[in-house]
Design brief:
Shape: flat
Largest sheet: none
Low-confidence stretches: 212-222
Structural class: mainly alpha
Mean pLDDT: 78
Radius of gyration: 26 Å
Helix content: over 70%
Strand content: under 5%
Order of helices and strands: HHHHHHHHH
Length: 235
């Protein structure tokens, strides 16, 4: 937009508004990181995806500040720098958050637990593959390689090959939970189905344990409590 022929004053206004977008984004990043402070962090698959989401979203937000600067934006307009920034925010952040939520609620939705080892491996592969794909594009855009071009000078060969290899790894990381017996194939294994109690959140587990403990005491279960209420016993 800054190279579209607008006046300098309009470009300054749009630059200020673009910088202002980073304020609520930074607040949310600090909010997410502060939530993890002094709390038990089980390093399970959803938490790994959550950490990956925060990291990729932060990189995308920081590079957006470069695009809000008039002098730098004119230099990197229509280059791979813009492509990398967009994918770090919209793909790296959104897809990692989606996969984290999917793994968190998958046992509750299906009543089955996914293999934890394969889940962590998929999160690691996806995180590494994404950075290998799009981080070299920041360098390519900075040195002046335009986007939407399939032909490029020989000095850009290594970074483009690295980005292509990273895209292959990223595809494996995204398809890993769906193709291999990680999420989808677990539904078909009805003989090895795990009880739903193992997949409930902790609050429901505590409530179920309290109910069992009360039911084992004579006269102190739910039925005994109802009888005492009916008799007017305040114990």
């Amino acid at each position: 937009m800054f190279v579209a022929g607008m006046s300098v004053y309009a470009a300054l206004i749009f630059s200020f508004l673009t910088f202002f977008i980073g304020v609520p984004s930074a607040i949310k990043v600090f909010n997410w990181t502060a939530t993890c402070t002094r709390g038990p962090l089980p390093m399970k698959t959803p938490m790994l995806y959550a950490f990956g989401f925060i990291g990729l979203f932060t990189i995308g937000g920081l590079t957006g500040l470069f695009l809000a600067t008039l002098g730098i934006d004119i230099h990197v307009t229509d280059t791979y720098f813009v492509v990398a920034h967009f994918h770090y925010v919209m793909v790296g952040g959104v897809v990692m958050a989606y996969l984290g939520g999917l793994h968190f609620w998958w046992p509750k939705i299906t009543g089955r637990m996914y293999p934890e080892g394969l889940g962590k491996l998929a999160a690691l592969i996806g995180f590494i593959g994404f950075n290998l794909t799009f981080f070299p594009q920041f360098i390519l855009g900075y040195v002046g390689m335009p986007r939407r071009y399939y032909h490029y000078p020989p000095e850009f060969q290594m970074l483009n090959v690295l980005s292509t290899a990273g895209a292959t790894i990223l595809g494996v990381g995204y398809l890993f939970p769906l193709v291999l017996p990680h999420l989808v194939a677990e539904i078909r294994r009805s003989r090895q189905r795990q009880p739903l109690e193992r997949c409930r959140p902790r609050v429901e587990n505590h409530l179920a344990a309290a109910h069992v403990q009360l039911s084992r005491r004579p006269g102190r279960g739910l039925r005994g409590l109802q009888l005492r209420r009916a008799e007017g016993d305040s114990r």
